[in-house]
Amino acid sequence: MTASHSPFARKLGAFVALSDRELIALDGLHTRRKVFPSGRDMIHEGQTNHSAYIVASGWASSYKILSDGSRQIVDFQIPGDFLGLRSVLCRTADHNIEPVTTLEASEVLASDLLDTFTDMPRVATAVLWAASRDEAMVVEHLVGVGRRDAKVRIVHFLLELKSRLKLVGMATSAGYDCPLSQNLVADALGLSTVHVNRVLRELREDGLLTFRHGHVEIHDLDGLIAMSNFDRTYLDEEGPMLI
Amino acid sequence: MTASHSPFARKLGAFVALSDRELIALDGLHTRRKVFPSGRDMIHEGQTNHSAYIVASGWASSYKILSDGSRQIVDFQIPGDFLGLRSVLCRTADHNIEPVTTLEASEVLASDLLDTFTDMPRVATAVLWAASRDEAMVVEHLVGVGRRDAKVRIVHFLLELKSRLKLVGMATSAGYDCPLSQNLVADALGLSTVHVNRVLRELREDGLLTFRHGHVEIHDLDGLIAMSNFDRTYLDEEGPMLI
DNA sequence: CGACGCCACTGATCTGCCTCAGTGCATGAT
DNA sequence: ATCATGCACTGAGGCAGATCAGTGGCGTCG
Question: Over 70: is that where the pLDDT of A2 sits?
């Protein structure tokens, strides 16, 4: 696999050993590219009959709004991630999706996907694997919000992002670019913006990491992993591990 | 569909209109029945190469344990629910499953499931639908833990259980039997046992609901729905709505 | 150019929920 | 009959994190 493949092919290729033919087929799903501006919902709750997308560039957030106006962000999507896969199956979206930055994404028709599956069953495995991983991430997110304190929660979140970005070549162990405002982080982690700010300052003062001006710099990876009990195997690193 | 079918067939039949032949095929998955005692893990994190199950009777909990010993329960499983479906795909379980009561469950081999799928595609749709619904429930759970206060969180949780149990004929609008201790509820909702106790007392005093001695009695359904902003359509009620 | 808005940041104050340390009541074991 | 165990329940006190009320920097738009 070379860097010339799309983030999507690159990500799946990291988990299931895929042939060049299969990788090229994955890239082939990236026709029908669309651009969405940041700040306006591209899918909103209750909407029916829309498509799934694969993110080509940019970040998005999926979230729910509660009656009192507060927002819970369920997950962020980065290049290579699916958008709205579940809502295709359920027919009606149960959450909103809003780009965080300008977003490029490719529309994926269920029929195209199924054709690829019957043609190349290993691709089906890989896609199912990715969907399961997404679900596992939501579960981990739930555990964090339910049982971890603010500091550990933020560290865990930033390490998870690092792992995910690394998969598509957008992060190194030293750091990564991150377009999320403190407010977005707060809404994802069930904290207030003010508190996120304070904790980030503490992490900076402790020499653990710096998150500023849209960039995360990791100063002490071992320290971070130790304090957050981040599972290295959970989303991590090295080459094809399945099949 | 008649009450003679298994909870599993009954649940799926409520969402996808299935023929008698299809319902009977679903019941046919219930060979290989096993009994698990409460209190001992049936699946634990990191375990590989185990099966999926369908719950026939009894309740189970899936949870994670954190390094500090605290527990986050991700979901409870009731009759008709899948157990460990995702961990079959991922090959290694990412969480533990422990029966809450004595549990009867049927082992389901991936091959049997796939055979049923190729034979009856509508069944595949129904099963995928159920899996998506489970994921949507985890998302809703995340939203609750992140953004709802203790009272609303508990009410929402108990209403969701009511809807799920109703689907398999184990609840009415008046109430249902619930074998969960206050401690289990607390670990699911990210609260302390003590606080769950207090909130349940308040709900009782407000004449909204009584949860005591393993039984939930609903006194004021409209009041509960209003205060928790429970989405009636989200998991609810009336007959086949898909296909 | 100044005005407006967004974002990062800070201090003061408030509060929801936790922790600790207990009591009372079951049920089952001896 | 008594003891042990588990769950429900209560009050006192503490703390993590929320809310409120600001300041200052920076980009953008009339």
Answer: no
